[in-house]
Design goal:
five-stranded antiparallel beta sheet, Ribosomal Protein S4 Delta 41, Chain A, domain 1, Structural Genomics Hypothetical 15.5 Kd Protein In mrcA-pckA Intergenic Region, Chain A, 5 strands, 2 domains, alpha+beta, 10 helices
């Protein structure tokens, strides 16, 4: 099977249900925090390539597709959600790629993750879906909810004693400078600059992919 097509087939499923580590190995980097140690051992070997560290060469299209799929999986979106966000960015003044990343970072589920309330974006989507998060004092159960600066994000009163939330807060991740948090309440202070967003993503390749 052509390497470009193989990459597309595996990653174009709207909701991938297989081992997440396989996605990280296919991309060649840890998409999820728990995969980091595993990738140190065998990240250079893609699934199905036993005993070799030589990765297949991709066409320009394949490179662009790989970057798009990497970003999509990193933020945990379906192809439709990802494309709709890109289209919104393309309609906005400014650099499309950077605007696109800003819109992804401004999602409620991403901010819940960035604030350290959860250890992954998938976990963040789950607690948002279940109604355990409030925005400016009101329950919001839409993970894709686009946040405005100075909005206050909090874990609902009924969920603050959740064991996992307490565990996450006891071992907090480094908080970005564009966010602030006190206990289970956080604030979206400002839109992040490009160097404060996902540095592993080459947004220009994504722009090129959708501009074909």
């Amino acid at each position: 099977m052509d390497h470009d097509n193989q990459l597309g087939d595996e990653f174009n499923m709207s909701r991938y249900t297989g081992p997440k580590r396989r996605l990280s190995r296919r991309i060649g980097m840890a998409l999820f925090a728990k995969d980091e140690k595993s990738m140190e051992r065998k990240g250079a070997i893609a699934p199905g390539q036993k005993g070799t560290k030589v990765r297949p060469r991709f066409s320009d299209y394949g490179i662009q597709l790989k970057e798009k799929q990497k970003a999509r999986r990193m933020f945990g979106l379906t192809e439709k959600q990802f494309r709709n966000t890109f289209d919104d960015a393309a309609k906005t003044k400014g650099a499309t790629g950077e605007t696109f990343l800003t819109l992804l970072e401004s999602r409620l589920d991403n901010l819940v993750y960035r604030l350290g309330f959860t250890k992954s974006r998938a976990e963040a989507r789950q607690i948002v879906n279940h109604g355990h998060v409030t925005v400016d004092g009101k329950k919001v159960s839409i993970p894709s909810y686009r946040m405005r600066t100075n909005s206050v994000i909090a874990i609902s009163a009924k969920f603050v004693d959740n064991t996992q939330v307490k565990k996450n807060l006891a071992d907090p991740a480094t908080l970005p400078e564009w966010l602030e948090r006190k206990a289970t309440v956080g604030k979206f202070l400002r839109v992040p600059t490009r160097d404060e967003m996902e540095l592993s993503i080459n947004e220009q390749l994504i722009v090129e992919f959708y501009s074909r």
